[in-house]
Amino acid sequence: MHIPGRTFPVEDFMLEDVLEKTGYNPPKKKRKKGGFNNFSRDRKANAWNDSEMSDDEMEDEDEPAAVKTSDESENKQPVVPLEERVKRVDQTSVDYFILAFLIKYIVQTNQMGSDGSVLVFLQGVGEISQAQTVIGNITKGMNLLLLPLHGSLQPQEQSKIFRKTYGQVKVILSTNVAETSITIPDCTVVIDSCREKQSSYDPINRMPMLLDQFASKASLKQRRGRAGRVRSGKCYKLISKDTHSKLPEHTAPEISRCALDQTLLSLLFLGAEDGSGRFLQNLFDPPSVKAATVSLQKMGALEQAEPGKLRLSPLGMHLAGIPAPPTIGKCKL
Question: Whose CB has fewer CB within 10 Å in the chain, the N or C terminal residue?
Fold first, then answer.
């Protein structure tokens, strides 16, 4: 069954295009060198040696080349080939200066149109806060309205992204909550960091964790479509063409990435499972429950009911009612 849908055309730009359009020159990656002569050059800044460093030295260490706007520094700055500039960018994390200069370019050249907004995809709340600070500094004096968007915001704060902002350019810094859950009608430009935080677990302690990693091509396609909902738009990806070609096509199902200890406890408590994994075998890609059963048995949460079948022990009955990983729940009892 095929249900046709309508989307407007979206023009794509990669990291190479972003560096070319903004003229941003990423700083060279520092290499640590040993020896007494290089100690003062490579030492870490602290309260003691900061007092011995001049303002020029502090500026050279902390400020990227593209931020220096004086005519003298621009004239002396050598022309770096585009290929070399791409290599200088660490694509495994967000370069907030590239992001800020790109937003500055988009606003100055009116890429979003007269009444359009810019939607930026970042990994989490911490990254949104950091980006907000850097963008605010780089675009100082420009009429921008920076709005965060994530799941922990109150509804009245989230509703601000839907309001019309006359005379101001709305820039929304969002987690992947805007990937599928929310449609912003006036969004015409998407900037994608191509990163996301995925739930996983530590196989040693059987504890859940969040991993910062590249999003899949399917996720990037979904984010790109945010700019083509109601009119044609543009999408800027902050990764190179080579990196994009190596991304996985789809995100692995969460049930294959997470520990099943808590899920198995709940299923046993409801009577849907007997420890053999029969309930989960109905899934398209059934996961193995062996690691979860071994972990819960060692903890004393499961006991043998009959050959090949398990049931909850008294401890397991208590743990099944606690909305936390079994290891944490046992600590609370």
Answer: N
